[in-house]
Amino acid sequence: MRFVDEYRSSADAQRLAARIADVVRSDWTIMEVCGGQTHSIVRFGLDQMLPEQITLVHGPGCPVCVTPLEMIDRAIAIASRPEVIFCSFGDMLRVPGSSQDLMSAKASGADVRMVYSPLDAVELARANPDREVVFFAVGFETTAPANAGAVEMARVQNLRNFSVLVSHVLVPPAITAILSSPDCRVNGFLAAGHVCTITGCLEYEPIAAQYRVPIVVTGFEPVDILQGVLMCVEQLERRRHTVENQYARSVRREGNPAAMAMIGKVMEVTDRTWRGIGAIPMSGLRLRDAYADFDAERKFDVGSITAQESPDCISGLVLQGLRRPNQCAAFGTMCTPEHPLGATMVSSEGACAAYYRYRRTPAAGAAQPTHAGHQP
């Protein structure tokens, strides 16, 4: 692995784009696996700086976006109970469920509160012993240590009125699922730097070797992303397929052992459904049986709630890099941030939200939302 910490200005970004143009000889498709990277790419037009041989596509890098529809419905069902104080980060409050979102449930009388940390919810449980306090534990590996730590703290303090509704997902199985698809044309990946700050890079090495694709752990600034693209293209042109670390200022190969130990103590790997994508085996986290008393899904018996996605939303194709947001017939018309059909339009890291904010012009020949996807 290597990292060259030399590119920090807009002039450096231009030089990086020129270097990519010098290096590239073939056509390559590269997927970024982080919603923050997607927003930087669209906001700053990084894809438009690249030579035409390079196509950037957007992956399932927004944990809010991939939280399954039925999990939103389960959250609303729990929040609607009179004894419950339901706590969530703000980015989940307007994600649409089957018929409403958490903000609408709050307007109807549910005690839904935005918090900035799961420890805020633990404190609420301590201060309200006559109420059930539930925290919506959503995210990739990045937020899992804090959520697991909150559960452990509640256990130590014997706060039996605290529980978490867990919808954690894991990045490596999602990359594997994309590479295993017969529709996949992705040649390389920009992995999410903040996830790898926790997990490190080790889990990506067998994926790169098995599927013969380069994976570059990448940061979020424009120069980070362009350098990640350059490192990926250099590997592709040389027919190499290893894991490299562009984000070495924050990521170590072994990750954060203390954070991973906390996750492993409280949680275990499980199958998980991804919104718009479907079930991916062993791609999520749940509480271990030893912490069952803190599992809101079990405590409130909402595990049987299921839901169907809207046929007018193609967010699943967007999350797999098979369509761009502005290739959806509903984009900017039936689906807006004020009235979203899917989470990718309302999440602060969603690809559809990025295109709506920075690149609203519909793509030529926008596809109908119910048609099968293809690689852009």
Number of E-state strands: 11
Percentage of residues in helical conformation:
25-40%
Content-based structural category: alpha/beta
Ranges where pLDDT stays below 50 over 5 or more residues in a row are 1-7, 364-376
Main β sheet profile:
6 strands, mixed
**Gap from first CA to last CA:** 31 Å
Strands side by side in the biggest sheet: 4-3-5-6-11-10
What is Rg?
Answer: 21 Å
Number of helices: 17
CATH superfamily of the domain at 65-170 and 255-299: HypD, alpha/beta domain 2
Q: In the CATH hierarchy, what is the architecture of the domain at 65-170 and 255-299 at level 2?
A: 3-Layer(aba) Sandwich
What is the average per-residue confidence, as pLDDT, rounded to a whole number? 91
What does this 3D model show about the protein?
By secondary structure, this protein is α/β, with parallel strands linked by helices. It has a domain at 65-170 and 255-299: HypD, alpha/beta domain 2 (Rossmann fold, 3-Layer(aba) Sandwich), CATH 3.40.50. The protein is 38% helix and 17% strand. It is built from 17 helices and eleven strands. The protein has helices spanning 10-23, 35-44, 46-49, 63-66, 69-79, 102-107, 118-127, 144-156, 171-180, 193-199, 205-211, 222-237, 257-266, 296-299, 315-319, 343-346, 351-358; strands at residues 28-32, 54-58, 84-88, 111-114, 132-139, 162-169, 188-192, 215-218, 243-245, 267-274, 278-287. The strands form two sheets. Strands 4-3-5-6-11-10 form a six-stranded mixed beta sheet, with helices on both faces. The protein has a five-stranded parallel beta sheet with strand order 2-1-7-8-9. Strand 5 (132-139), helix 8 and strand 6 form a beta-alpha-beta unit. Helix 8 (144-156) packs across helix 13 (257-266). It is globular. The chain starts with 9 loop residues before the first helix and ends in an 18-residue tail after the last helix.
